[in-house]
Amino acid sequence: MTASSEKDSTMTVGEIIDKLVEAPNPFRWEAFDGSTAGPADAKYTVRILSPEGLSYIATSPGDVGFARAWVTGGMEVEGEHLAHPYGIFDTLRDLYGQFRKPSAGELLKIYAELRRMGALQIQPLPEVERSSFLERSLRQGLSRHSKERDADVISAHYDVGNEFYELFLGDTMTYTCAYYPSEDAGLDDAQINKYRLVFEKLRLKEGDRLLDIGCGWGGMARYAARRGVHVIAVTLSQEQAEWGRAAVEADGLGDLAEIRYQDYRDVPESDFDAVSSIGLLEHVGVKNYADYFEFLSGKLRPGGLMLNHCITYPDNHKTRKGEFIDRYIFPDGELTGSGTVVRKMQDHGFEVLHEENLRFDYMRTLRDWCENLKANWDRAVDLVGLPTAKLWGMYMAGSEWGFEHNVVQLHQVLGVKLDENGSRCGVPERMWWRP
């Protein structure tokens, strides 16, 4: 092949993008080789800064490829802060719907061009790859949602470092949906209001015993202990447990609240007055719901109450999250609809008394987390590195968009354990808590 014919056979980055995305392209694309694609008046401009960035997009079109290019610095989007890139998600939705499958001949040309650029030998996100622990789990024969593998999953996400989470979670150190008393309420007030809501729904009072599973940094445990409730709280994150124990001691609550580094399935105590599960069910696995609710019903006295607070889908057909979330954020995580949660509670130990959807509250919570991360961006990068900080910004902004657009929801479901005669043991008929 002559030098002239070889030059004629090469493709520009803009031409590769045109082969991958159906017209009209929702983005303007500008590439390191000077080529462009998409309309000049598009709302957002994507800049592909390196052959590696192009390779991520071309070899894995969709959320994973786009995220890899973004996080590794192979791509940037004009006008979006790395901590809160919320604005691009409307356009990303359009983009993901317009990726096309090139013909065999087109694919050969694209891969030949990537190979010529030396971009096919890269390794995906070694700094923030969240699935390496799965390789160990598989080698050891650990099944999904075994105790050992669940411990690895939780550690992969939550043991990034307490100081990093302190930058955006606020004073309450709460990594679950807040409950805003008004649209303009602050994050800390909204988180305290969420604990108030859970406390009142569970009819807790001084002297009662609460089991709080998936307790995070111990916010619910400390809220209840301040009101005279005896709490056993468990988490599979060693760093969370250490932080929570220190907070309990600092608040002088050591006689009432115990924070354990422990799987909830290993809690030996029983006869609790209430169980709170705030943000744990997402990690349990839909096939394990029956065992989960049966186990927790067995931990309650007759008439005891359980509050389950978890992310759900708007319907009951889907269970697995997107590839990006599953690979880099919450490995092994599973969601389903609130109807499935209610049915499994009803079938396995509980009469369901009440359920409600707080998805707009989670939208606001994520917005406030992103803004806190934005305000502390330089420190976040110092603590965890630019790739991980960008990863968290993208996932939280995308989740904010998802709750606003009903891609996901947040449901609280309240249930009571009946006695052998079907009695609620004094639990009232009507709603007894303040909304």
Summarize this structure as a short list of keywords or feature phrases.
disordered N terminus; 435 residues; alpha/beta; Nonspecific Lipid-transfer Protein, Chain A; 11 strands; seven-stranded mixed β-sheet; 18 helices; Rossmann fold; 2 domains
Task: Describe the protein in words.
The chain is α/β, with parallel strands linked by helices. The protein folds into 2 domains: 3-117, Nonspecific Lipid-transfer Protein, Chain A (2-Layer Sandwich); 156-416, Vaccinia Virus protein VP39 (Rossmann fold). The protein has 18 helices and 11 strands. The chain has helices at residues 3-9, 13-20, 51-59, 63-71, 89-98, 104-117, 132-139, 147-158, 162-169, 187-201, 219-225, 238-250, 289-298, 323-329, 338-347, 359-375, 377-384, 386-404, and strands at residues 28-31, 36-37, 45-48, 75-77, 209-213, 230-235, 257-261, 272-278, 300-312, 351-357, 409-416. The strands form 2 sheets. The chain has a 7-stranded mixed beta sheet with strand order 7-6-5-8-9-11-10, sandwiched between helices. The protein has a 4-stranded mixed beta sheet with strand order 2-1-3-4. Strand 8, helix 13 (289-298) and strand 9 form a beta-alpha-beta unit. Helix 16 (359-375) packs antiparallel against helix 18. It is elongated and about 80 Å long. 44% of the residues are buried.
